[in-house]
Please model this.
Amino acid sequence: MTNRGWWQRDDLGYQQDSLHFADHCVSDLARQLPSPCFIYSGKRVTDNLQRIKGALASHGFDQQHGLFYAMKANRFAPLLTYLKTTGLCGIDACAPNELTHAVSCGFQPNEISLTATSLSRQDFETLAGYEGLIINCDSLHSIRSWGKLKPGSEIGIRINPAMGTGRADNEKLQYAGDQVTKFGIYREQFAEALALAASYRLTVTRIHLHTGCGYLNQQLQQWQKVLEQSLWFIEQVPSVKAVNIGGGLGVPHVASDQPLNLDKWAKTLAKVMGGKPWRIEIEPGEYLAKDAGLLILEKTFVEQKKDQWFVGVNGGFNLAPEPAHYGMPFLPVALLNTPETRRVSVVGNINEALDVWYADIDLPCLEDQPYLALINAGAYSASMASNHCMRGAVNEFLIL
Ligand SMILES: Cc1ncc(COP(=O)(O)O)c(C=O)c1O
Model:
């Protein structure tokens, strides 16, 4: 009997015990494509996008919202170009090279919102060459540098409400909270920031916040408090036309995670920020791209050591660092489902002790299966990959 895991859905799951994704048999893809490789579904990304837009529209943010895809999650050029053709979103960029790349994929500077940190003089000079770019300054240094280059222009200010939300309250995923961080301007310095902007005749038309990543339903109450804290900043700035509430919307990683209830999410937003004279903007990355990607890996060995079974694969944590860096597991799934299972640990090909994809998981016996796949590999995987141990070679494919 087919065991329907929590992660299965209409476009990802077993059909006659064979894994299918985005209308393709994954075993066929694995045979046809070089391994290791990432496969992305354009349709899943746009479905995720439409779901957010629908929730915003049904809570009064109909005409009044802007959506920027956070390309740091996945910058694969065909994906960006495809998103441009849909007209559904702009781009959130976090560095000059991301900006240039987004432009090369068809986005106009005025469709790109840039929120970066620790920018150099050369970085600012590059950014200033893009007329119409939406920029959010995250520090006094940033306001001063931009003011010198572009006096009289419009800017956004990234604030830090000293409170954040992240997946399972994981501190590493919080950008604002008890610990002081480099991100944004705190209450104590806000008046100074506004005076500095005024001294360069900069008009502050946007308030921006991004306080953490991967939040789910359990964090919505905390997220409401974050939004409430932000109102204090917005109220100080009568010239504000837009409030960008950042990204951070998460997706399930384990069976006990419930998918984010977008209706509740949008209702929470409306409770705090509905009916205001400014428009709402949002810049999700994970929610749009993460569950739209698989990493397909070739099995290298199945072997018992002491009382533990290991399954080795031809790609390591360097190809998708989130599980090792942030403790966010990427679930391995077999391409062929079988009734017999074995408890194994799936490990990669990097000489580091932390190169374990998943410890102690019941998987179909893989002796006769050449490949397996990791789910949730569509975001913060290829874009964060390194060439550690010179094992960085990986291919990406987009299914449309
Ligand atoms: C400023 C900013 N906006 C948006 C995002 C996207 O976040 P997520 O992928 O969690 O939605 C990030 C990610 O770190 C960010 O730093």
In short: Residues 42-57 form the longest helix (16 residues). The pocket of pyridoxal-5'-phosphate is lined by residues 70, 72-73, 92, 94, 115, 210, 213, 246-249, 283-287 (CB under 6 Å). The two ends are 31 Å apart (CA to CA). The chain has two domains: 12-41+293-399, 64-283.
